[in-house]
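As a warm-up, study this chain.
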Amino acid sequence: MTTNGDVPTAWDEARQLGQLFMMGFDGTTVNDQIRTLITTYHVGSILLTAKNFESVPQATQLILDLQILARDFGHPVPLLIVTDQENGGVNSLYDEAFLRQFPSAMAVAATGDKQLARRLAKATAEELNSCGINWILGPVLDVLTNAHAQPLGVRSFGEDPAVVSEFGVEHIKGFQEGGVATCGKHFPSYGNLEFFGTPTDVPTITDSLENLSQNALVPFSRAISAGVDAMMVGGVAMASNHINVMHACLSEQICRDLLRTEMKFQGVVVSECLEMEALSRNIGISGGTVMAFKAGCDLILTCRSMSVQEEAINGLTAGLENGMIERSRVQESCARILALKSKYTNWEKAFSPPGLENLNRLRPSHTALSASAYHNSVTVVRDEKDCLPLSKVVMAEDEILLLTPLVKPLPFLAAFRQFTEETREQSLSPRPNYTADSLVMTGERVFRNFGRMLARRRNGKVMHASYTANGVRPQHETLLERAKAVIVVTADAGRNKYQAAFAKHVSMLCRLSEDSEGRPDEKPCVVAAVSSPFDFATDKSIRTYICTYDFTDAALQTLVNVLYEDQKQTSVTSQAQQHVRRPSQARQHWLVENYRDERDRAALNNLLIVAQAPSRPSATLLRSVTAETFLLHHDLIEEAHFVVRNSSTKELIGFCATYYQKSDKIGSIGAIVVSPSRRHQSVGHSLHDRAIRALLQKEQSIRIKLGTQLPNVFPGVPYTDAAEHRKLAQWFSKLGWKVSHAKKVFRLAISDLPNWETPDGLGQSLAVPDIKYDLVHGEEYTDSVMQHVCANAPSDVQLMYRIALDNKEGCAIIRGKRVNDGSIVASVLLYRNQSKLASFVPRVQQQDTLTGGIGSAVMNANLQNKASLLQGLILLGVRQLKKQGIKALLLDYMDDAQALPGLQSMGFVVTDSFNEVYSSAKEWTVS
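Now compare it with the structure written out below.
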């Protein structure tokens, strides 16, 4: 056991990686999934949720079995056993025989009693700790900046940053005093989310960082000062000025720059569960795992699926193996996690939790604490007609009408447990199982129990009816006529609009009611919000309004007491602001994997098709490009290609091709292609870093360049459009390329070759007296041609000549030879679009007509009349291709700007231009 958080030297890499994951499983006993995670993958933190718990004795035994399993298979330190226990409506572990029910966060804040909050947190922690749980995912520190439309609801302490800060800090202290680690959530805030797109898309924070720093970030800052042990970073998107983040927990700007650097958090950073559908669909689990870790997360959370969990582990392993993740970074995160473990657990604690005896000892004091907390939390917001208590305005013999919505019950309620038990019984019989609609119907049982409690308390009749989105029905009107008072229950009416409409309609009917003689006789109408208190917080048409913050049995029993006893109104208001500096711009790190042809070919072809969308002028360069275009498969050149892929959907998000010319010691980046839907999200940056790292690892690498002649997709940074080129140049410049020192290269074409004619006198003017020309093709000319090419051209051009010589039917070579000794001094390639060579020059294949290419002019270095000789070779090539019936031709590469006027006078038109950029290998460092 380590005591200072250092990684023990005996730990191998697999054990260290296992410490970086928090994982869950389905089941109430140790099963194959969790056994494999602990024993094979050495996962060091286990998340247990309601699906893992049946009772406190079962939970205690399960946790003990997990710790024993870890110890037996060589874990040097105990497992972190983690759960959500926010109280109110969010309790993973509930057993009314052993545990007490406590109010939700917002209900606790409504008491205005910070000492009570600390006592409640400590009591919660003591109960969890008794079962062997040593880490709670709480408190929730989100500020409900836009309280009326947020799903977080009563899980937050409220809409005032000062209140959230104060009660959040008290919960941190209470949890820690009770013996469990803490985890603030959901950084940077779930308090003001916008919902765009489909329900499976992640919500978006549109607040600027400046606005967040003045409101939403205040409680997180206070929590850090108070010593919160960990921080969970949410999976929401962020879109505002200066920030564009797809998932906050994958963002270096949020995790590292804002949380670590600006806010100086030194504890454990936990990612949101990466099994969210939007993340697996958009990025993939393995890529998301690497991005989260590179962004600054120490613990990666995956909750359920074994296949997804293995994908996450394999992704992090791949990131480590390919150099994206530094081993020192793994050790840094391990050290933080081990420090957390050393503070809250050891093997003695893990094997001897306080247990059931301690829970029995705590029961009396915790029962009293629960009752006191609920009594002080239930809030009478308004009672303008002085209806409360109802005993003042309704006689015992009068009837009261209770109207409740149909809602799903809270998972730990007795009604829900009864329902699930009945469902199991039904599944064993021939009768059909309950449907999802049936589950909603069981919400009625929760409020039936409330009606019975109300009837017992008043010792009189209570009529009870449910309502739905169908509104006030005739049967409701009949009951309203009979009732002397009405209680309408709403549960988050802000998001269930029919409830708000129903309650207001009933309230209006009560105001307009008449006695038996037709005189106005307003009926008392009480609206009780049993979830969000914001249902009618500002709607004065609801004259008597009570908030309970949840609809647990304890909360509803307290509501009964309020309806028949005096209850003082509660109001907590305060203001506070704290400024946090906006972090600098940063980027996300995607998992970059080696391209595997059998796995990625189809996906790469799809990516290349998608990338041809006419969103950018350079997209036209990808027409006719396929995966085969980039695969040279030749000993002259080493090729290594990389992909960013969604391992869940198998989709390729990005692709990068690299080539290393061994004889010249030159590495090249031949292409970087990113899906249009993933641009501006650092995919290209991650691919570029991986490519540079791979090229620098080649022995004695001298130069690295942007662009290749083979394959001839991008000979350099494209210049098809001035505005686009400026952006591309800026992008490569930021990556470290000296784009201002680039060499301009061109592609030229003659589009109507049948009608082309040799300009008058051009042939004679280009004649070189001591040079003669011939046209050759086939392997028998390999030795003489390649001797000339190898002496004067780089490896990619050499490979083009070898391909041409091997393809006798589709390619030819025009040679310029000295008359006196027959030595070759110049040469140029000719090829048709059906040839093997043309498959690497997609521009030649982009037209439906018969096309041809001229390229790879090779000239002896000591020639005196290069310009004339070059033009003469190309002129002969044009004539030859016209003679073969070629309709259009491409001059695929020209790096001599001085030769352009002469070529244009021959009828060539520049179609594309590129900046070919070289850099010394010594100049590179990779982030």
